[in-house]
Amino acid sequence: MNEKKRQAFRLTAVLAGLVLGFSGLLATSAAAEPTTPAEPTTATEPSTATEPTTEDNTPYIVGGGVVSQKKPWIAALHRDGGFTCTSTIIAKRWVLTAAHCVAAAGKYTVRVGSLDRTTGGTTAKVSKVVKHPKYNWPTADIALLQLDHDVNTTFAKLAGKSDLSDGKAVTVYGWGSEKADWSGPLPKKLKYANGTITKVSCTDSNANPRVICTKTNGSIAGGDSGGPAVVRNSSGQELQAGVCAIGHRPAGSGWAGYTSVVAFRDWIRSTAGV
């Protein structure tokens, strides 16, 4: 495939004409898992913008579904009052997200314990941003955010190496755009898509052990950056395997790249103590 068509892009929310998001996660019921993967399509690198002033709840059905069960460990990340990325709570004062989500200066907060990114649950201020020291997008696109106070919620459980394998079922979550062309407003409710982990490369590198590639029935884009890719263990427990970092344009291809939690497990443990 032409190298130019394999450019990956940062998935920060691009609004006012180029809103990125979970374009495949809009249906009211889940679509079936994909079968034969297709090659990723053209990708570009968007810029960060603020949230639009108007809301539109029109359902654009591209695939995936609206989350109905509580996911108290998934949090909406805001910068200067506007939604920017998805994230997860991994400890009382620690949030896991993508480093490119917090590359811009600003005041960051998280909304915890609500499927609606605009209301409900509780909010906490980010007192410290810790990007991985080797972050240089898309390399090491992972960050930890320290909160200004403890949050009382269920924390995300992190996957181990034995929990991952090619063809493993995966679910991805996020609050991204509802349109395949990434335009229009962001949805208020958390979305999901089902799929599998695949060995087929979704990055410029044909073999990157620090990136987990997924193929789902929905496509990843802006507002889904920093969100989790989740697998289940033999007991059915959800385990976070990756952090959303890379997608492909136009939405609809279903391909995405997630920074591997396993690859950065030691750094997470030494920084956040979990």
TrEMBL record:
Residues annotated as domain Peptidase S1: 61-273
GO biological process, one term: proteolysis
Molecular function (Gene Ontology), one example: serine-type endopeptidase activity
Region Disordered: start-end pairs: 31-61
Stored CDD domains: Tryp_SPc
Keywords: Disulfide bond, Signal
UniProt-listed PROSITE patterns: TRYPSIN_DOM, TRYPSIN_HIS
UniProt KW Signal keyword: yes
Biased composition (Low complexity): 31-52
Signal sequence bounds: 1-32
Keyword Signal in annotation: yes
Homology family: Belongs to the peptidase S1 family.
PANTHER family linked to this entry: AT26814P-RELATED (PTHR24276:SF91), POLYSERASE-RELATED (PTHR24276)
UniProt protein name: Trypsin
